[in-house]
Structures
1.
Amino acid sequence: MHILVTGGAGYVGSATSAYFLAAGHRVTVYDSLVKGHRAAVPPEAGFVRGDLADQGALEVLFQTHRFDAVAHFAAFIEAGESMQQPGKYFRNNVAYTNNLLETMTRYGVKKLIFSSTAGVYASKDEPLCEDDPLGPANVYGETKLMIETMLRWYNRVTGLQYAALRYFNACGAMLAPDGTPIRGEAHDPETHLIPLTLQVPLGQREAVTIYGTDYNTPDGTCIRDYVHVEDLASAHVLALEALANGRDRMVYNLGNGRGYSVREVIDVAREVTGVDFPAVEAERRPGDADRLVASSERISRELGWEPRYPDLKQIIRSAWAWHTAYPHGYERDEPER
Ligand SMILES: NC(=O)c1ccc[n+]([C@@H]2O[C@H](COP(=O)([O-])OP(=O)(O)OC[C@H]3O[C@@H](n4cnc5c(N)ncnc54)[C@H](O)[C@@H]3O)[C@@H](O)[C@H]2O)c1
């Protein structure tokens, strides 16, 4: 199939593009590079630089390519920023997704895989199932929930088949079979715990900050479920197959079913890097839920998804390999934009 990958120059989209290609599909990435990196896009993929805001460019894209499916990663992803600039998130994530959906409808492209998030749920002590109560703690999570609602209506009105994949915390790096890092996390600004933590032993940051130590968890710090980026990528390949087989309206969690507190992640990072680096405690940030841990039983049962890298130490080892090889991300080998 020929797959349009929006946001395919970003962290999860570039890894998934590589997985689609390896599964024998054709990939065209559409990305504005507002956040992503041209160098992250697999060389075998087509690349069109453009923004989902630009309806004319989208029209040309669909006129000049015949897509069988779309994997939609493009979004702003910083929960903290979304609590300061809600309009930026409603516009980019929700309104521009509607541009994409309208264009897909006009060109008869009926299959979509959407990057949703654990942030659509209300916090809960037990692993979260897809039917558990929803209740985003921040605007970013709300934008993803709004898009899931749009997808249900597009399905009903236009027959769009979709899979909304609710990722828990994406992490880790893609390594070649010989262990050479290929692509990894390079957000700017970086807001994710594992890369922020690894910046300390790399000498790029004096200490890692723990935001909030009075959450309703055993050690007082937030608990999250960390899922390797390659395991997210493999789930997209399975979702695409399911769409090709006629499934629609799929909603799946993607996580490992095990939660780690911020303090636990930092301890594992100290162990992996062999550096006893400092952590400092700070006030809570707005918009952080106490605990988000996935039950991914539904996608395992229905699509046969099995994470290959469920172990946090293994995840952090792969991230460490990437960050030590590319301490400044893709910067150095970035071609001209
Ligand atoms: N990283 C995570 O832990 C995580 C967790 C849950 C869900 N998600 C979702 O997965 C997706 C990918 O996340 P990521 O970590 O790879 O983010 P990322 O920032 O690395 O990638 C997003 C990409 O989208 C592009 N983009 C943003 N707005 C655009 C627009 N209007 N037009 C064209 N391109 C645009 C950016 O340039 C970037 O390359 C996002 O939708 C995010 O909400 C990520």
Note: Residues 6-7, 9-13, 31-36, 51-53, 73-75, 77, 92, 96, 115, 117, 167, 169-170, 187 surround nicotinamide-adenine-dinucleotide (CB under 6 Å).
2.
Amino acid sequence: MARVEAIHPMCLGHGLCEENAPEVFRVDKWGCVEVLDGDVPPELVARARNAVYRCPAKALLIDEG
Ligand code: SF4
């Protein structure tokens, strides 16, 4: 299982994370990312990783430990 976290002050509300992995990330009505479930199940890891690496603000972290 992988773990994701958001660095909220760095989020610019682009919404790419939600587009890539809506089961994991949501952008709230104030334009800030929200992690729906920090523990990412195996079937969603590839999409969560893609969202993390594509975040233009580098506001997401993934630990695949
Ligand atoms: S892609 Fe990055 S900057 Fe955009 S909403 Fe998601 S975390 Fe925030």
Note: The mean pLDDT is 96.
